[in-house]
């Protein structure tokens, strides 16, 4: 599912959104007017609701020799009207009112491309406005929305593993980006704090829990119990063969699997002892995940876990039944979304237990009542696709309208072998040790940059601090720079490289760009205040300037499809434009106006790189 239909989430140029300009957004509007006139003049018939999609066919060009932007809709329109694409393109060009921002195109190129170039004076003005703008030239969305983002949402009391990092990191980046664009974002960590894993822990604790170990390290003890009970309940022969202690327990408790379910049911029914233990264990579980969030530097406005919604579940099922949406089937209750012969979306099991689905329905209702969102995004593994599909359809039948529900799905983290990422021993890799390893490895590259600038002046404490930022940044960025829907291979070697699209390269780029000012003793605030114009005579200056003012377009693209990799890709391209500029042209040694102008471009590049990385949740450092 993609985001906005119509004009929602699209940018303005200037005006209420701030001083920033989104040239592409402006151009799309110009095309929209032209296409409306084209239709009104009877050249081709265009249903008004198709206008936004047609205008989305105005995109940045890959090669400046085709201008800065190109509109390609003439081809599709001509085909439909049975006309020549070039003729339609000419008719569009005649109706383009390009205003002050663009050079008027003279004729179509090739089969019917309409290529446009931003006027140099407009580009220079946009750069200067961005230099003076705390938002770096990014306008606010014209129609801010209330957007709830449900992410991270681990099942507590189970050790978090590398898969959880994706939801956490992608959700955090999206919330920062949407907030920066001007939306009203509410983040919620829908903790799995009420599921079978607690049944396992309660059952195990009562049989072989160890008070002293719990006192010494609660999460280690709970983790031990969880892993043991999980293996007992699974009863895999290879697990039992590998561990005589486990085999002994298996002989002692042959019915562990069923007993665990009963234990879970007891907790859900409000059994006093079980509830007491749950309350005792929860703080330790939460402290454990908080520690990880601290290191990842992510936070939430709310963490309303599954347990919070328990009081509402009975009512949800009753209401669904009363409206004739859910009914009984072999003792259980479900919503038959795909006809009587297809499995229903179950909301109550035959033993009376409620399900993940029930909680999610109660959660939607609660969020609507309390937060009145326009959109709810669920940043969750693609393997839950069917759950969300059924959840959203049930919600619609239940009368949940006027809110967009989106499953922002992501793929699996793979190991070098192309299989889901595991340790050599075959266990899933704990997140904590993964972060530790990233930081350890980062320590080896810290200080290996430009001699005399990087490592030389650093104390051990500096190096540690930088390594934490670089190591954690590498792990986050590796994830964010992938197309979220594809699986990706987790490789420390790749993610810590100093070249290519990695966090380390980007962090290094920021340190280099910004290092100029320190070395030359230039006050950046003063530089900005004094910037009244920039010179874009050299093609590399112009290319950098154009890339700088495209920050808002990159953020707009992230929102359109909830893909943070469109921002990391943009930042990487920006760093590339900067290198071409900086390698070819003198900056500190330039003369007069060129010097001031180029320094202003450097300043804005550094700020946009830093801000862009911050929106991805990636920290930066002064020296590497
Ligand atoms: N706790 C679930 C899991 O770890 C994810 C929950 C996602 N959010 C939701 N509202 N269902 O698989």
Q: Could you explain the architecture of this structure?
A:
This protein is of the alpha/beta class. The chain is 54% helix and 8% strand. The protein is built from 25 helices and twelve strands. The strands form four sheets. Strands 5-4-9-10 form a four-stranded parallel sheet, with helices on both faces. Strands 1-2-3 form a three-stranded antiparallel sheet, with helices on one face. α17 (431-445) crosses α18 (460-480). The longest helix is centred in the middle third of the chain and has 25 residues, at 272-296. It is globular, with a radius of gyration of 28 Å. The two termini are 41 Å apart. The model is unreliable at 1-7 (pLDDT under 50). The structure holds arginine. Arginine is lined by residues 150, 153-155, 190, 192, 360, 363, 378, 380.
Set down the secondary structure blueprint.
Elements: H1 23-40, H2 51-55, E1 58-60, E2 69-71, H3 73-81, H4 85-95, E3 114-116, H5 120-132, E4 146-150, H6 162-180, E5 184-188, H7 196-208, H8 211-216, H9 218-234, H10 237-242, H11 244-252, H12 256-269, H13 272-296, H14 310-322, E6 326-329, E7 332-335, E8 345-348, H15 356-371, E9 375-381, H16 385-397, E10 404-410, E11 413-414, H17 431-445, H18 460-480, E12 488-489, H19 492-495, H20 503-520, H21 524-530, H22 539-548, H23 551-561, H24 565-584, H25 592-615
Parallel strand pairs: 4-5, 4-9, 9-10, 11-12
Antiparallel strand pairs: 1-2, 2-3, 6-7, 7-8
